[in-house]
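Lab meeting, action items carried over

1. Structure of the two-component assembly. Owner: GW. Status: complete.
Input record:
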Amino acid sequence: HRKLLPNNNKTKPKGASFLFWFSPFLAFFLVILLLPLRLRNHHHFDVLWCSRRRLMSPPLEHDYIGLSEVPSAAVGGGEEGALNLKATELRLGLPGSESPDRKDKVGLTLELLPRGFVSGAKRGFSDAIDGAGKWSFASGESGSEVELGKGGGLFSPRGEPVAGSSGGQGTGGKDAAAKAAGQERKGAVQVGSSVGDDRAMAPAAKAQVVGWPPIRSYRKNTMATNPSKNKDDADGKQGLGCLYVKVSMDGAPYLRKVDLKIYKNYKELSSALEKMFSCFTIGQCGSHGIPGKDGLSESRLMDLLNGSEYVLTYEDKDGDWMLVGDVPWEMFTDSCKRLRIMKGSDAIGLGKYDPVNVLCYIF
Amino acid sequence: MTYFPEEVVEHIFDFVGSHRDRNTVSTVCKAWYQVERLSRRTVFVGNCYAIRPERVMARFPGIKSLSVKGKPHFADFNLVPYDWGGFALPWIEAAARRCPGLEELRLKRMVVTDDGLELLARSFPNFKSLVLISCEGFSTDGLAAIATYCRGLRELDLQENEVEDHGCQWLSFFPDSCTSLVSLNFGCLKGEVNGGALERLVARCPNLRSLKLNRAVSVESLNKILARASHLVDLGTGSFAVDHRTDAYHTLMNSFPKFKSLRNLSGFWDASPCCLRAVYPVCTNLTVLNLSYAPAIQGDDLIKIICLCFKLQKLWVLDSIGDKGLAVVASTCKELQELRVFPCDIYGAGTTSVTEEGLLAVSSGCPKLNSLLYFCYQMTNAALITVAKNCPHFTRFRLCILDPGKPDPVTNQPLDEGFGAIVRSCKNLRRLSLSGLLTDQVFLYIGMYAEHLEMLSIAFAGDSDKGMIYVLNGCKNLRKLEIRDCPFGDIALLKNVAKYETMRSLWMSSCDITLGGCKALAAKMPRLNVEIINENEETDEFEENLSDLHKLEKIYVYRTVAGPRNDAPDFVWTL
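Predicted assembly:
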């Protein structure tokens, strides 16, 4: 068991003996809690964090949802020994202790395409789609890789005629473009598969352009939960395949919505949610909450140590609040009406509150 | 004219109905401005941030009806972040303070809270009609407040809202003395309602003409309600599926014939073909039929019902109707004015969907067709040209080819000529949505011919800035322009900046607009709010670091006399 820095124990307001007994678990939880906080695309951290980010050249850090590991070589320029990535990561534990690196998760995303970025540009879907669009050209006609196209259109043929097969708009260089696109696609696929996400390659790809086709979410949600299936689909995906549920977090000023159908499992959902809500996990964020020079401010650390771990819960069809993770994923998406990120202390008594489950979903 | 006493002028203005005309007369002279503002009864605000609510209420203290729209249209497709804005409370508060005579409130795409609804319910003694479309942020508690405090409520119409379910009791809050309901629509609610309360409410409201139930209302409950409400003109059923061996089924079969005045039918959630037979007796009188929530009904069953509906004016269906079904529509529904065909399944390969054939059939069979929303997998230029010739009366034409950027499958050409024919032929076209493979040419046509176009939606189209420039220079009456995923950049944005003050709003997402371009626009046009929406970006930190070359994901530009708004969330910057 890892122990917390001893002086923190003593300053705890709660019963010291309870804490003393509990602290190994607390420490364990908190290490895992803080692992996700190495989010690089998040600005509500301390000044040091900010300044470190400024040292990085913008194009590299502004990848599509900030997911790809910034190669240590990229820190380049102003890097000093004391300023390397690991040292400034927010972790709890004795100096020198290692926490397992978080694998980059692909939460809410499509494939990662490190195209030439305009400085600081997070081009989002359209860039990804452009690349994806080329994928379908690589195959030469709208038949085979149309799986990508099938998903309501993954390609944005901006400035690029989409004549799938021969003919088209008389762009002679198209074949060359298609070939190059094929190469790019391979590269992209590797990036994609390196994070264990082959969703982009799956037929009837769930990953689709946001807001396309232009159908109101009300209709999508209604049809998605419609039990009558009127035709068989090979992989069982029916209807408009989208299920937006609200996600609230205790203490956060506003709600978010997520489409449950774009995730395949709990891990993806959890990492997407933590990205959305990470700015709220550390006590203060935004304008209030002056960061301390040494990284974590006192108040933030106190918040964490005071046990404000968060747990992900959901309201099911019967109106009961359950802990996320108890049932198989498909059953969960069928019955989940809304999500709530609760404080761990409030979640006691909600089903299996065992450390393993909690660990997975703690923010 | 100015020598007439005010009462006479006011009486004359009573005949001036439309908003535009009234706006115009108010600019003639101060006297007319005064008369007009005091006699105005209806105000429509197309963009809630274009003007402060207090100013509206101060200018028009006598209004009885207020209509306000909030979020940009693309919010319907989740392109606008959830917490962007569009709050109804300031409007309700301002009205409560200055215009206690308010009787009708209509809100679209706004965030309405339970507190707002309660304030609304308590502040207006003559309140009669509440219509909420695509709103969110409230729960059934807010509805309970409306039910409790709005004596004399005539209309409660909730269309496609996100309503939190806090229980089924809200309907019971309508007091026994409430007998004035004319229209009740709670189709968008997800939870159960108290069946007994609903039946009693229907029974004691003799003027009820429009009733739309939600999916949670069973057939048994529907039967009981129908027994008490034979004067209904507009019915939205609840869940429309029940085993044909049950009593409920038999009762259902016998319920409809007595509805002599029924003209609109909708709902039909989970409808099964055998239950659908129940409505055959009323089909001959129907003018509006919405079967777009009944995916279990296949093409053949749809055909059976449609061939009875020869007075139909408005039809909403799923694409399971197929081209064959649309041919039946064409031969039966000669009065058809509006057709909407929604996709059942966007992942399918389009096996049972509709194609250009269906649209062609309808255009040649239904000469009165003026409004279209059509989702399909392919379209040809030839078909569009023929449709344009057959139906020159289109006012709304929205075609969505599900594969973005798909060309004409027969010729492999872009669809420029097809859409060009539509805008050339349909002189009264007010609303147009484009899809498929399109180059700058189509925008040249639109700019040249679409004189009355007010709203244009563009996605995955165009080659260069020229496309957008053609539109901005051309369409004189353009009010709303929304663009996504097109290669339009700063040059297009800045070419005709004065145009934006003649428009309500401009939305551009995933285009090539840079921060520098927006800054230039904001500098040149102080009466526009140039909003940059940066949902996933770090905001504070990079605000200093962002160069003018930084490409923007989403911008929303709108004219306003209210200045930058004070309720913008962190991720929205108003330049």
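2. GW to write a short summary for the group page. Key points so far: Residues 223 and 252 of chain B are 6 Å apart (CA to CA). Chain B touches chain A through 72 residues (CB under 8 Å).
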